[in-house]
Specification:
Blueprint lengths: L3 E6 L8 H9 L7 H5 L8 E7 L6 E7 L8 H5 L5 E3 L5 E3 L9 H5 L6 E2 L26 E2 L5 H13 L12 H5 L5 E5 L6 H6 L4 E2 L11 E4 L4
Parallel strand pairs: 1-10
Antiparallel strand pairs: 1-8, 2-3, 4-5, 6-7, 9-10
Length: 227
């Protein structure tokens, strides 16, 4: 059984935000008007967050791409009263939108703040509605949304491999953010396969995970910048 994970090389990342735009288009994330964004109503399943290093005045700001961490021990799944968020056998923290009652317990439990409450009914100014992805449902108002590692792409890859009578190969399934990265700073694959690229990179000395001391065991690894 695979355990899907991601590695992001901060030495290669240019903070261009191509991954952010690709995620929005792939997963039918509605645009937010400036007033709603100013009030905290913006929605990004992957975003670049600031990491400040050093002491003033010798400070340095680094931008880090942050999707859902798809934790091995996700705190969000433990607090959902309707089991709308759960961890599937392949390590993905999934979201059943039809089961979500919008209580936001999971958003409050997530230490990475990667879950977003859909405050308004999604809408797209013309002609942007023509670019909606037919493989992804448009979520209604009043539910929690989050990164799914483009789970619909996994289903397509499995169907294609089944039709060809073979097992999934490395590279058959990659999320939109990984595919769109122009500097090839993002890697995706099976962490259980010791020969996969992500498994090898996760074992590097540069590898670290965000807030690892919390015991959530994120399945998103970062490679620190080389000196």
């Amino acid at each position: 059984m695979p355990r899907w994970g991601m590695v992001i090389d901060l030495d290669k990342c240019t903070a261009c935000q191509a991954c952010v735009i690709a995620c929005k288009m792939e997963n039918n994330i509605a645009p937010t008007n400036p007033d709603a964004a100013w009030q905290g109503g913006g929605m990004l399943w992957i975003k670049l967050v600031n990491a400040i290093e050093g002491e003033y005045p010798e400070t340095r700001v680094r931008l880090i791409p942050r999707p859902c961490m798809h934790c091995e021990h996700p705190p969000c799944t433990k607090v959902c009263p309707t089991k709308a968020t759960y961890k599937d056998p392949e390590g993905l923290v999934a979201q059943i939108y039809g089961q979500c009652i919008g209580c936001r317990y999971c958003a409050n439990a997530c230490p990475y703040t990667v879950k977003y409450f859909n405050w308004a009914a999604p809408s797209w100014p013309s002609p942007l509605e023509k670019g909606l992805n037919p493989d992804v449902a448009v979520r209604p108002k009043g539910v929690i949304e989050k990164c799914t590692f483009c789970h619909h792409r996994l289903q397509k890859a499995k169907e294609q491999a089944r039709a060809e009578g073979r097992e999934l190969r490395e590279g058959d399934y990659v999320p939109a953010c990984v595919q769109s990265c122009p500097s090839k700073a993002m890697y995706f694959g099976d962490l259980e396969d010791p020969n996969s690229t992500v498994a090898k990179l996760a074992r590097e000395t540069r590898a670290f995970r965000l807030l690892e001391d919390l015991g959530t065991a994120p399945q998103v690894y970062y490679l620190a910048e080389e000196d």
